[in-house]
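Hi all, posting the design record for the shared folder.

TITLE: backbone redesign
STEP: 1 of 1
STRUCTURE INPUT:
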């Protein structure tokens, strides 16, 4: 791994912290502004929908102008947006801040494009596994701990901490990160061709388009679960937000181990496609098992199993998209992937918000069951279409599916 890879990894880690700090507090922060469960789901959806629009634009612009300038713009948006959210005096400002953070989003996809730029195809599964371990795994350990510290002051302090950490990442981009784009994409023939059209045409890209659809479906089922996770943990299992934060940290630790070591070992023994299918199968089963017994010990045990197999899914999808994309469109491909994943993050909370009722805590179990059933459907779809997105044999450690 090169020096640039490690610099990129640190920047992505700092960016991840700025996001994971918010996960344990966003639901309750919305409640402080008097939002209902459904209105809080719209708070989640606003950020995700804005990212759906912006991420392919940022990805395509990074293919044209370079990774570094677009990473600067994206991180600067996070700095400003989370400062506004942390100092908001009303729900309108909170919604605007989440929209601003989303519309300037795309830093993860740009960082992933940098990894693709500097890593040969045969090393990308390991590289993206390590990327996932540090950003989403380690980030889910340290971020919740920092969130817990911030909560001692106020929930808004979590947003201010997020803003400060994003500023640190921005500083490192400015002073330490070299430009990695070697072959710039051709200039757009029309000024309005800034990537939005790729949201549709990207679905027709051979092998990549089917992966975008699968990831959209995966993301939708996952965010149906994640929106109901917090209220179920608090209202049904009778836990508090501090315990929830510690659970997030523990799950992050599991993800670090699996993504840093497990994916590299698994790719020596089986194909990426098979790893993806196993991850989806176990995700579906654990979704269905989680709400069966409202007992904290049982719930944590199932969550630990879930964390092991869930950690396989996104790095595998990212690697498959990277391997199936040409070098001069890596940024666009990663941007499209992040964009469809983001819009799924808009649909999931809305679906869950429509079927839960705070007046009836029993309803917080329903999104788990729905997520499990839908994930099984995605598994069937991914299995039946696997020949359409399997990379060429010379790009995999083990070409068998």
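Okay, here is what came back for every position:
SEQUENCE:
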């Amino acid at each position: 791994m090169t020096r640039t890879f490690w610099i990129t990894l640190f920047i992505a880690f700092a960016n991840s912290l700025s996001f994971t700090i918010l996960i344990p507090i966003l639901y309750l922060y919305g409640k402080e502004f008097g939002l209902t469960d459904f209105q809080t789901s719209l708070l989640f959806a606003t950020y995700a929908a804005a990212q759906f629009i912006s991420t392919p634009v940022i990805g395509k612009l990074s293919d044209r102008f370079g990774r570094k300038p677009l990473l600067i713009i994206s991180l600067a948006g996070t700095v400003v947006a989370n400062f506004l959210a942390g100092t908001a005096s009303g729900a309108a400002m909170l919604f605007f801040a989440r929209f601003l953070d989303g519309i300037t989003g795309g830093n993860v996809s740009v960082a992933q494009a940098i990894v693709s730029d500097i890593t040969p195809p045969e090393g990308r599964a390991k590289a993206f596994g390590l990327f996932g371990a540090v950003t989403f795994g380690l980030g889910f350990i340290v971020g919740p701990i920092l969130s817990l510290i911030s909560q001692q002051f106020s929930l808004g302090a979590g947003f201010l901490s997020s803003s400060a950490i994003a500023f640190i990442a921005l500083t490192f981009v400015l002073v330490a990160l070299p430009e990695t784009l070697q072959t710039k994409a051709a200039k757009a023939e029309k000024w309005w061709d800034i990537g939005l059209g790729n949201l549709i045409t990207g679905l027709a890209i051979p092998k990549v388009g089917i992966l975008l659809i699968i990831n959209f479906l995966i993301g939708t089922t996952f965010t149906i679960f994640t929106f109901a996770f917090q209220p179920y943990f608090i209202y049904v299992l009778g836990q508090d937000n501090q315990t929830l934060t510690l659970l997030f940290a523990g799950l992050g630790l599991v993800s670090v181990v699996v993504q840093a070591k497990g994916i590299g070992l698994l790719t020596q023994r089986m194909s990426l496609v098979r790893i993806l299918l196993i991850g989806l199968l176990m995700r579906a089963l654990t979704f269905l098992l989680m709400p069966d017994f409202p007992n904290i010990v049982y719930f944590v045990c199932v969550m630990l199993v879930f964390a092991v197999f869930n950690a396989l899914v996104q790095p595998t999808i990212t690697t498959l998209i990277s391997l199936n994309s040409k070098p001069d469109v890596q940024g666009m491909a990663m941007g499209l992937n992040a964009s469809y994943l983001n819009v799924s993050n808009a649909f999931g909370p809305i679906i869950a918000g429509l079927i839960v009722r705070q007046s009836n805590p029993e309803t917080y179990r329903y999104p788990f069951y729905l997520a499990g059933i839908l994930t099984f459907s995605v598994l069937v779809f991914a299995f039946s279409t696997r020949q359409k997105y399997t990379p060429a044999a010379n790009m995999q450690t083990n070409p068998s599916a």
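COMMENT: The two ends are 28 Å apart (CA to CA).
Let me know if anyone wants the other runs.
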